[in-house]
Amino acid sequence: MSTPLTHNRRQFLKEASGGFAMTAFAGMCGKLRAQSIDPLANRSPHFSPAADRVIFIYSTGGVSHVDTFDYKPQLSKDHGKSIVASRWLNKPGEFTRYLIKPRWNFKQYGESGTWVSDLFPHIGSVIDDICVLNAMHCDSDGHDKGTLAAHTGSAQFTRPSVGSWVSYGLGTENQNLPSFMVLAPAAPYAGAQTWGSCFLPGCHQGTHVIPGKNPIANVAPRGLSPQQQQKELGLLNRLNRSHQNSRHTDLAINARIRSFETAFGMQQAAPEAFQVSAENQQTLEMYGMERGDTAGFGWQCLMARRLAERGVRFIELIDVGSNNNWDSHGNMKDHERLAKNIDKPLAGLIRDLKQRGMLERTLLVWTSEFGRTPFNTNANHAGREHHNSCFTSWMAGGGVKGGMVYGKSDAYGIMPTEESAHTHDLHATILNQVGLNHEELTYRHAGRDFRLTDVRGEVLHDILHSQKAVG
């Protein structure tokens, strides 16, 4: 006598899915596309894009601008001099503090003669492909809020990530891979909100991949034949459809069903994409990798190139981990170890994309949540505090002019003086380069239209090659 089927959808999902790839099969994919509009369908941009994809690199903790890319010889000359700071440890006021010189020397690199510190000699070697933004500022000097703002444009409220907005605006070029992928050993400050889709359809959230021996261990069905998988998932599909029919506006249901599609496609596409054994030794050395490496920032950068080749729209690399945090309150010398970890891989990524003819259509963005103070409580202090009034980011490829510095700060790197750029401006420029108007890319939620840049943001046209509008 057969056991009656208990119609508990949540329990069935838990028992039947095992690995997420077991929650989809080809027939279901075909039915979904035939019955509804695919939220990840490839969409036309607002105008002709300069870039087809974005690689967003995030160094968590607050990288010191005056020790890396914002050359301040006067800061070295006036080391130990007292100044009055208008903000200290997230509090406004008047604070007597003392200037602290950079710990590293700076050199001019490339035909552009751009100044780069000794922390980044490899990036210095490709500086003619990079536009340095030396007068960035943002709304918060707290890690959680600063990280949230760097990713979502909002320091106060949970909002969709920039990667989710790109996915929502353009869809995917590869139905077998997610449109937005995040390669990170762990989540940064603010957690998974940094790649969340918030009120956008759930299929646009980032797919988090953790580097390691088997970063996508659950992509293949465990112990099931194709026939068994098809039977179980056929029932799952019917349950999903029945549940969806009674909840037409439930975005979570639609997102779950669409995720099943992607999961099935990843059974075929992901193993090949993550198989780096075919890469030659020269390429591995370019990224600072040893053959057999399955983790490390070099692996993240190489995987970014491989995913970009396969049509993933937005790839984020997060420089984070148990020992990877640029929050150097007590020991700025730790910047040396942290910079060495990313310097060669990032330069290798730029070189690799360029020699493959991909850099022109791939936009690279490197940033941190804020910079660090050029001053402290005494001139001999070994660390620097949070500083959101002025910091450095950089962009490369994707229609951005290389070999230039945009923006200028005062003699000590405390405040911007020329061509200051807010986080909203950075986001507006990212969207612009993939053919999206940041003012027109909106989503109706809770009675109002939301956008990544809220009610602010200006495209940094001075750093861009010219573009032609569609039509």
Give a summary of the structure in a few sentences.
By secondary structure, the chain is of the alpha/beta class. Helix content is about 30%, strand content about 20%.
Instruction: Please state the overall shape, judged from the principal axes of the Cα atoms.
Output: globular
- Tell me the name of the CATH homologous superfamily: Alkaline Phosphatase, subunit A
Q: Structural class of the helices, strands and pairings?
A: alpha/beta
Gap between N and C termini, in Å? 67 Å
CATH architecture, please? Answer: 3-Layer(aba) Sandwich
Low-confidence stretches: 1-36
Name the helicity range.
25-40%
Tally of separate helices = 12
CATH class: Alpha Beta
Overall structural domain count: 1
Average pLDDT score:
87
CATH structural fold name: Alkaline Phosphatase, subunit A
Protein model, in words:
With 471 residues, the protein is of the alpha/beta class. The chain has twelve helices and 20 strands. Strands 1, 6, 7, 8, 9, 10, 14, 15 and 18 form a nine-stranded mixed beta sheet that branches. Helix 1 (9-17) packs antiparallel against helix 7, helix 2 (26-35) crosses helix 8 (251-273) and helix 10 runs parallel beside helix 11 (334-355). The longest helix has 23 residues, at 251-273.
Write the topology of this structure.
Elements: H1 9-17, H2 26-35, E1 53-59, H3 73-77, E2 82-88, E3 91-99, E4 106-109, E5 114-117, H4 121-125, E6 130-137, H5 143-152, H6 162-170, E7 180-183, E8 207-209, H7 226-245, H8 251-273, H9 281-286, H10 297-309, E9 314-319, H11 334-355, E10 362-367, E11 371-372, E12 375-376, E13 386-387, E14 391-396, E15 404-406, E16 408-409, E17 416-418, E18 421-422, H12 423-433, E19 443-445, E20 448-450
Parallel strand pairs: 1-9, 1-10, 6-15, 6-18, 7-8, 7-9
Antiparallel strand pairs: 2-3, 3-12, 4-5, 6-14, 10-14, 11-13, 16-17, 19-20
